[in-house]
Amino acid sequence: MLIEHEARGKLESLIIKNGEITKIEFVQAGVPDFGLNLPLQPLPEYCRVCVRLNPEGESNILIEVWMPLTDWNGNFLGTGNGGHAGTIDRFSLINGIRRGYATANTDMGTSPDPDMLIGKPERWVDFGYRATHLMTVVAKEIIKAFYGRAPKFSYFTGGSTGGQQGLMEAQRYPEDYNGILATAPANNRTHLHIAFIWNWLALTQDPDAGFDEQQAATVTEQILAHYGAEGGCIPGDHFMAQPDQITVNTNIFKDGKLLNDTQIRALEIIYNGPVNPVTGERIFAPVNVHGSERFPLGLSAQSNKDEFAKGFLYLFRWIFGKDFDFTKFDFNHDVDFVDEQLAPILNANSTELQDFKNAGGKIIMLHGTADPIIPYTDSLQYYERVIEAQNGLENTQSFFRYFIIPGLAHVFDGPGVQDIGIGFRATPKDREHDALTALSLWVEEGIAPERLLPVAFKNGSLLNGFLLDEYEYERPVYAYPNQAVYESGDPNNPENYRKEKRIFGNFPKPAPEYLA
User: What per-residue confidence (pLDDT) applies to 507?
Assistant: First the structure.
């Protein structure tokens, strides 16, 4: 066990380029108290190091590194954030040190509010890639000073914005990590936010267009009733494994006047997705995947005019100013301006991963079919472009594998399986039940993941799953392009499925100019 005063001395003597260590704290083993009133599981003793970086101008990047005092596994885990970040994600840090990793997280330079980045291009760079890279560099320096040796392997895990961070690391800094787990990545960032404003306009400009939670649930229920079998819904399930196989006719909502005409028109706009009104070219995939409408961040959240604008349209204020009128957004000229200003900084769309591959790096990418805010069809088209760049599936799968998770909503939760080791579950699992374990075994032992077994929590409760480690069933998923096909018997028994190559539907893909 490390002696506290010796370890503190090593850290205090460390010189951090363009920054400083602001706090060194030794935390006793026990249940963490973050004021959340949750039954969190005990953590081991660890050293918490807080860092502030100011690499350029008005940059202000916060980083925390947590290092277990005993039972360090010898490795480093960088973790991602969510949304516009702006805080340290303590739950990601919990997940890491519980597994024995020295773990780091960053606020991505957006504290205390994303509007602090209005008109601040250097801080856009921090959010886009610099904060994550510097977190990685500084964390490794701190770990080496603390333990007296560098980590043997370095991993990154993150979902949503965190997924973007992971793919950006592979593309820009291929030597930073040996393995990257990217879930529901927001890597086509500018065009994703253009899709957000597309939906926001469809749902909020007419008072009759929006959806409450019950109406959003009605949409999903009707789609499952009319198209569930076609979309791969097994009897008894409340989700589709293959929503890309269906095309919804909105006339189904007219029967019994389930929705008003304005709501139906809004759905048609949303299901079509954002297009350039002048060229007709597609800007981004439709955000609301069929069957995802009722889930958190779905139709009801997107109908909240003020809250959705505050939480999801902040990028436009960065470049157009704090008083920008979102209703005036031009899906021709303004899209070009957004891309000119932000795409080179924020978008992790590059398929040039050869340097990462040559360095021995491995990527597992996951995405759920019930994600209502970042459609899995976007990560699917990215993966297919990587396959093309790598001259085939075999070359791609040697270092990069993609799993589509039936019924998973945004990162975790949803009407089907709800986790595959992404969240801060109480106990890490084996390589089929835990994607981070699968990644580490692939990197360290060469065991490539073929099948994963994500789980559905007891009573569908995240509390039961993450904190109490209780789940009801599991379903098999296979690496792209394969899928699990139900044969007969108990659908919750993974042995009642066979592996079969999946034929994907004709899902809408962005025009090449919107993939930069």
Answer: 84
Whether 98 contacts 428, CB under 8 Å:
yes
Contact by Cβ (8 Å): 119, 321: yes
Number of domain units in the chain: 2
Give the span between the Cα atoms of 379 and 297, in whole angstroms: 18
pLDDT digits (tens, 9 = 90+) for 319-337: 999 999 999 999 999 999 9
Residue-level pLDDT at 508 = 87
365 beta partners? 182, 402
Identify the domain boundary among 127, 152, 177. 152
Q: What is the DSSP string of 131-183?
A: HHHHHHHHHHHHHHHHHSS--S-EEEEEETHHHHHHHHHHHH-TTS-SEEEEE
Element (H, E) at 341: helix 333-346
Count of H helices and E strands in the chain? 17, 15
- For residue 339, give its domain range: 190-346+505-514
Question: What CA–CA distance (Å, rounded) separates 453 from 225?
Answer: 27
Kindly state the helix (H) or strand (E) to which residue 473 belongs, with its residue range. strand 471-474
Question: CA-to-CA distance for 334 and 339, rounded, in angstroms?
Answer: 9
CA end-to-end span of the chain? 49
User: Of 431, 377, 36, nearest to 185 (Cα)?
Assistant: 377
Q: Residue 119 — left, alpha, or beta (φ > 0 → left; ψ -120 to 50 → alpha)?
A: left
Query: For residue 13, is it within any domain?
Result: yes
Residues 6+ apart with CB under 8 A from 490: 496
For residue 77, the SS3 value is strand
230 and 139 fall within a common domain: no
Quick one: tokens of 114? Answer: 């994303």
